[in-house]
Amino acid sequence: MSVDYYSRTLLEILARGDPDKEVMSACLKKETENKEEKKETRTRPDISKYLLDLRKGKELKQEELAKEIGISQRAVSNYERDGTIPDKPTMQKLAVFFGVPYSYLEDLADQWNEKKRIKKQQRKEERIRNGGKR
After folding, report:
1. DSSP assignment string, 26-40
2. CA-CA distances (angstroms) from residue 34 to 44, 88, 119?
3. What is the mean pLDDT of residues 64-83?
4. CB neighbours of 91 closer than 8 A, spacing ≥ 6?
5. With bands split at pLDDT 50, 70 and 90, how would you rate the model's confidence at 116?
6. 44 pLDDT band (50/70/90 cuts)?
């Protein structure tokens, strides 16, 4: 885990033994804001949010959607929560059920897969820079 600028600044202030309360407060506030911002950006990939919005727009529970298209409630939850991408037949059923173009769902899935590939590559490069350490 890398220490960001504000964490380092806070640690330096504490190391000096004479922390200025306003500076410490500002650093803590900024660090909290950064964490919240990072949390927001990783909450759901685009396709997950879109599927969640579609389901909620029809005022359906996950169980009801699952039953309508012939999949498990757990699968619906995974699609909405952690970005598991539906397979092509399921994506086609979702497109028909919600009345959205299949190609649009496929594009969202492709975009998410590309983001995932880039993040994986960045983690790999980071490990190489850190000498193999995570």
Report:
1. HHHHHHHHHHHHHHH
2. 17, 37, 19
3. 92
4. 85, 102, 105, 106, 109
5. confident
6. very low
Phi-psi region of 133 (alpha: psi -120 to 50; beta: other; left: phi over 0): beta
Residue 7: C-alpha distances to residues 18, 31, 49, 59, 115 (Å): 16, 7, 32, 43, 27
- Torsion over CA of 10, 12, 14 and 18, rounded to 10 degrees? -110
Average pLDDT over residues 75-100: 91
Please report the sign of the dihedral spanned by the C-alpha atoms of residue 65, residue 68, residue 69, residue 75: positive
Domain residue limits, the chain: 5-41, 46-129
Nearest to 10 by CA among 26, 22, 21, 24: 24
Q: Is CATH 3.60.10.10 what the domain over 46-129 is classified as, yes or no?
A: no
- Cα 61 → chain centroid: 22
Measure Cα distances from 116 to 45, 94, 101, 110, 119 in Å. 9, 22, 23, 10, 5
Q: Which residue has the tokens 């409630």?
A: 73
